[in-house]
Write a structure and sequence with these properties.
The protein is mainly α and 283 residues long. Helix content is 38%, strand content 8%.
Length: 283
């Protein structure tokens, strides 16, 4: 297997995840604390020394946060850049062109896309960054409520009719802020230091934004969060970055799959106005 572009079958991924879950005894999606030594012992098939443990952590803990997530665990075995499913455009044709800087002289994102091809294209990159780097913090999600264009009506602490939905926020705030930038709201906001998403968020666009923001804050998760409304470039003013091209023809090679492969947790947001599970029932 070419470890630089490892492609795992669903069965292979299931085996790795099962091994990881056996060590992740508290089920928080991270191997931390005493679990770390257990994982090192499992991979060495014996008790490791303190020196070996330090070497192991330096090699496996890619972001050096003292914890190991599923992505890091699998990368330690098959190499960085692994994914589940069929080969993407990059696997078949090589990496997409990326400039030394992801921004031009005006600070706007340089588009890095492959040529037209009959095979399914991988999602175009935003400023040279993949979708997993379009994370946003819960503080940044909440800050949108302070925008001058934002509108909310509250009756007895309940969001009332006429308040902004997620769809309204995208149209009135996110699109104007990001127009012509070539980056979604999350990446534009964090363009000087992009955030890798650790929490994949499933939500409904017709929910009240206030309820969504409060649900994120009350989730107990620190993020960063991947929210399609904030992460996808929504403006449709750049042909190479239409929403359709960003999503791609093949869901297994699209942004949702890429983020799910690297995130530690998936969070489903259910609000008073929109129940995402009802949508699932009607599919």
């Amino acid at each position: 297997r070419d470890v630089a572009m490892a492609r795992l079958t669903e069965a292979e991924f299931a085996v790795f995840k099962d091994d990881f879950d056996q060590v992740d005894t508290d089920g928080n999606g991270l191997v931390d604390g005493g679990e770390l030594r257990q994982l090192a012992n499992k991979q060495l098939s014996r008790e490791c020394t303190d020196h070996e443990f330090r070497q192991y952590m330096e090699a496996v803990d890619l972001n050096q946060d003292g914890m190991i997530d599923l992505n890091e665990y699998i990368a330690s075995i098959v190499g960085k850049g692994w994914r589940v499913g069929k080969p993407s455009y990059q696997d078949v044709h090589g990496p997409l062109p990326v400039r030394d800087s992801p921004f031009d002289e005006q600070g706007l994102a340089v588009q890095c896309v492959g040529p037209s091809s009959p095979v399914s294209l991988a999602p175009p990159l935003q400023g040279g960054y993949g979708p997993e780097m379009c994370g946003i913090s819960k503080e940044q999600i909440a800050a949108i409520e302070s925008d001058d264009c934002y509108r909310v009506d509250i009756v007895m602490n309940i969001t009332a009719e006429g308040s902004f939905t997620m769809r309204d926020v995208v149209d009135a705030i996110i699109k104007p802020v990001t127009a012509g930038k070539g980056m979604g709201y999350a990446l534009w906001t964090n363009r000087n230091s992009p955030l890798k998403a650790r929490v994949m968020v499933s939500h409904a666009w017709d929910e009240y934004y206030r309820d969504f923001a409060h649900a994120i804050n009350d989730s107990g998760l620190d993020g960063p969060f991947w929210v399609c409304a904030h992460a996808i470039y929504q403006v449709e003013d750049i042909p190479e970055l239409t929403i359709a091209r960003q999503l791609g023809d093949d869901p297994s090679a699209g942004p949702f799959a890429a983020v799910l492969a690297s995130a530690s947790v998936m969070l489903c947001v259910v609000t008073q106005k929109c129940n995402i599970y009802l949508s699932l029932i009607h599919i």
